[in-house]
Structure formats: C-alpha cells, structure tokens
C-alpha cells in the first residue's frame, strides 16, 4: 500500500459498533469491568485508549514501523525514549538541533549520570571518532533546526548497528511523507507531532515509532510507567490531520522551493539554507534519502536590525515560534527557539542574530512571495 492510502486507512478503519468512518473520540479515564479479572482488555486510560491506539497504529504505518507510542509533547517523547538509557551510558548527539532537546539533555538528563557528546554530524567521521565503550545511543535530527544541515542516515545507521547502539532520528522537519529513517536503518523515529503531523497549529503532541520488537516492548513499558501520554482529543485531531499529510507536504515543499529560489537570488539576503537548492552543500545526500525537501527555510539577513525590520514588515508570515502548520510563520531562532544553546555554540553553527527561519505554509505562493518582496524592499 502506498503512503497516502496508509495515512488515510491504517488505524482508521470504520468503527465496528456503528460504522462511523472517523475513529470515535474515547474521552474516558476508565472502563467498566464485568467482574473481578474479567474485562474487554481496557482497564485504565493512561495504559489503554482506543483513539490513541488508532493514532499510534496510523503513525507506525506511515513511518514503516511496527509500533508507535504517543506522548503529550515532542519533548515528552524525547524524554521517555531517553529512559531506555541508564546512568553511565553515553550518547552521541547532533550539535545542531532543536534547542529544547539540547536543554533536556544538557540541563536535565546529564544530572542523572548520562553523558552526551555533541558532534557535527555533517561529517560521519565525527560520529565514529566520538564513540566510547559505553556509547548506547546515536541521536540525530535531519534536516536540522534551524541550519537545515543533513545527516547521512544510512551511513550513521551502519556505525550504530556495527557498535550495537540505538540510532534515534528526530524526523519532525521532513515528516514521514518525505523521509522514513527506519527504512534507512534507524531503530527509533521521534516527532514533535505539534508540527507537520498536526499541521494546523492547534495542538501539542509527540510520538515515537520503531520496528524493533525489543525496543517497542521497553517503550510501551516506559510510556505507561512514566505516564506522559497525550489526551484522546489530540490523538483524534492527529488522525484527522494524517488524512491530509501527503497533500499538505506536497504543497509546503512546492511553495518552499519557489520561496528558496526567490530568497537565493534576492540581494538583501546574504545566504539561504534549504536542502532543495543545488547550492546546499549536502543537497546530494538530501536528494538520496528524502523524497522531497520540506517546507522549512532559513535565511541570513546580516544583522539583528534587519531581522527585526523584516519580521515586523511581513504580513502573511506571522512572527511566532513553532512550524509545520498550514499558515506561514517566521521565527528568530536566537531570541525564540534557540536561547538555551550557548552563544559560542550558536556562532559556530551559524545561528546568528541575523538568521530568520521561515515555515512556508500552503497559502497561494504568489501571495507569500509578494509578502517577502515588500518586506525586503
Ligand atoms: C518542536 C520540536 C521539538 C519539541 O516538540 P514539542 O512538541 O514542542 O515538545 C523537538 N524536535 C523538533 C525538531 C522540534 O521542532
């Protein structure tokens, strides 16, 4: 079955009781039991919820996984999967990544005796060089937030498998429509479902998928034991959103490609970072492992004053954190999403005060181009 069909049908079969074509919203905390020890397999909603199970089955299918586990946010998903580790374990992480993930590892998980090495994953040799005898996990994000750098997933997965480490990929930016890391050898995929999976800027959620039965068993245990589960309404909204993921992603990417080309040739823009441009240093790797380049672009305007000026003048691109919704957004990473990353690290990565990140929505691209043109004038 092809992607768009899976997205609409897997986990989303008509309801057995009534024939309802959308999965019912089971807004309940518990389930009546017939007698002690006799029930329908549903006991308590942290552990069992049919709406959540439907969404988990749906996302697992979209990611070519066998199992998925949903969480209250992307951050809760990352936190729970990190609990696969124990004190004394070492993790190799991409140095250019979502600021909140860095904050979680550096400010919270480190206190529990897990050590982290942050490396430039554009070069696979850096991963190899950072391996230690106690390395248990390699964690990456691609394309990265906000510099749009690419990790060669197949090459890093080979290293992880040779060293018996788990390989985890944050697939939030690409979405499973454009990139499926499990097919390239990763063990675990994690999403902030708040972004493209939700797609309408109306919910916060997270999800993890795997195709490894032993890891799935542990994740299921942790999801229930830690308890950072989403409410059923978020899962219901995500099932709704999954049905349009394929068409939304096509439009996000088509708009982004035109906007990136416009930005690249505009004299007021110093540099345009978009993996779909042939000028992107890792365009070839992106083209090999992604079937499209997504809707995220970062542009370097040269100074904070210019970033302030342009973001103020934009009308259709709303100044806001987050991304992946149908409406276009603009964000200033240094002051908004990446404040928790130390300045020297930000400077090394190119996350400057003049950098602005665009989340290209699915409005008519001519209107978006006109908005940019007049803001830059
Ligand atoms: C937003 C985001 C997260 C965190 O997800 P929340 O749902 O905000 O907790 C993690 N990774 C990436 C790439 C993100 O963009």
General description of the model:
The chain is an alpha/beta fold and 377 residues long. The chain contains 14 helices and twelve strands. It has helices at 3-9, 50-62, 74-82, 99-108, 124-130, 153-162, 175-178, 213-226, 232-242, 245-264, 283-289, 304-313, 343-349, 365-376, and strands at residues 67-71, 90-94, 115-119, 135-141, 166-170, 188-192, 206-210, 271-273, 296-300, 318-319, 329-331, 355-359. The strands form two sheets. A seven-stranded mixed beta sheet has the order 1-7-6-5-4-2-3, sandwiched between helices. Strands 8-9-12-11-10 form a five-stranded mixed beta sheet. Strand 5, helix 7 and strand 6 form a beta-alpha-beta unit. Helix 1 (3-9) packs antiparallel against helix 2 (50-62), helix 2 runs parallel beside helix 9 and helix 12 (304-313) crosses helix 14. The protein starts with a helix and ends with a helix. The model has no long low-confidence stretch (mean pLDDT 97). It binds pyridoxal-5'-phosphate. Pyridoxal-5'-phosphate (PLP) is lined by residues 73-75, 98, 100-101, 141, 145, 170, 172-173, 192, 194-195, 204, 206.
* Total beta strands: 12
Residue runs with pLDDT of under 50 for 5 or more positions? none
Q: Can you tell me the CATH superfamily of the largest domain?
A: Type I PLP-dependent aspartate aminotransferase-like (Major domain)
What is the count of distinct domains? Answer: 2
Q: How is the biggest beta sheet arranged?
A: 7 strands, mixed
Class per helix and strand makeup: alpha/beta
Structural topology:
Layout: H1 3-9, H2 50-62, E1 67-71, H3 74-82, E2 90-94, H4 99-108, E3 115-119, H5 124-130, E4 135-141, H6 153-162, E5 166-170, H7 175-178, E6 188-192, E7 206-210, H8 213-226, H9 232-242, H10 245-264, E8 271-273, H11 283-289, E9 296-300, H12 304-313, E10 318-319, E11 329-331, H13 343-349, E12 355-359, H14 365-376
Parallel strand pairs: 2-3, 2-4, 4-5, 5-6, 10-11
Antiparallel strand pairs: 1-7, 6-7, 8-9, 9-12, 11-12
The structure holds pyridoxal-5'-phosphate.
Pyridoxal-5'-phosphate binds near residues 141, 195, 204 and 206.
């Amino acid at each position: 079955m092809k992607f768009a069909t899976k997205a609409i049908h897997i986990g989303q079969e008509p309801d057995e009781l009534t024939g309802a074509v959308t999965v019912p919203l089971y807004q309940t905390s518990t389930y009546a039991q017939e007698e002690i020890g006799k029930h329908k397999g549903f006991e308590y909603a942290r552990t069992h919820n049919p709406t959540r199970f439907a969404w988990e089955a749906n996302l697992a299918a979209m990611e070519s996984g066998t199992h998925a586990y949903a969480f209250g946010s992307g951050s809760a998903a990352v936190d729970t999967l990190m609990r696969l580790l124990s004190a004394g374990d070492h993790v190799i992480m991409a140095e250019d990544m979502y600021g909140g993930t860095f904050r979680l590892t550096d400010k919270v998980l480190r206190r529990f005796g897990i050590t982290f090495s942050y490396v430039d994953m554009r070069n696979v040799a850096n991963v190899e060089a950072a391996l230690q005898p106690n390395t248990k996990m390699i964690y990456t994000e691609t394309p990265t937030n906000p510099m749009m750098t690419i990790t060669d997933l197949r090459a890093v997965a080979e290293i992880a498998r040779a060293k018996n480490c788990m390989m985890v990929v944050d697939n939030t930016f690409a979405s499973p429509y454009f990139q499926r890391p499990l097919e390239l050898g990763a063990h675990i995929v994690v999403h902030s479902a708040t972004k493209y999976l939700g797609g309408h800027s109306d919910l916060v959620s997270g999800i993890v998928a795997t195709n490894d039965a032993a890891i799935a068993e542990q994740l299921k245990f942790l999801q229930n034991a830690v308890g950072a589960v989403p409410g059923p309404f978020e899962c219901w909204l995500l099932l709704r959103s999954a049905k349009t993921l394929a068409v939304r992603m096509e439009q996000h990417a088509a708009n982004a490609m035109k906007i990136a080309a416009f930005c690249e040739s505009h004299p007021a823009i110093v540099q345009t970072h978009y993996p779909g441009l042939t000028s992107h240093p890792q365009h070839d790797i992106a083209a090999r492992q992604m079937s499209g380049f997504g809707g995220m672009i970062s542009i370097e305007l040269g100074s904070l004053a210019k970033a302030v000026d342009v973001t103020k003048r934009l009308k259709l691109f709303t100044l806001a954190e987050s991304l992946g919704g149908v409406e276009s957004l603009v964000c200033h990473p240094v002051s908004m999403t990446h404040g928790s990353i130390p300045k020297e690290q930000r400077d090394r990565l190119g996350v400057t005060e003049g950098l602005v990140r665009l989340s290209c929505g699915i409005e008519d691209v001519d209107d978006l181009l006109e908005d940019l043109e007049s803001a830059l004038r």
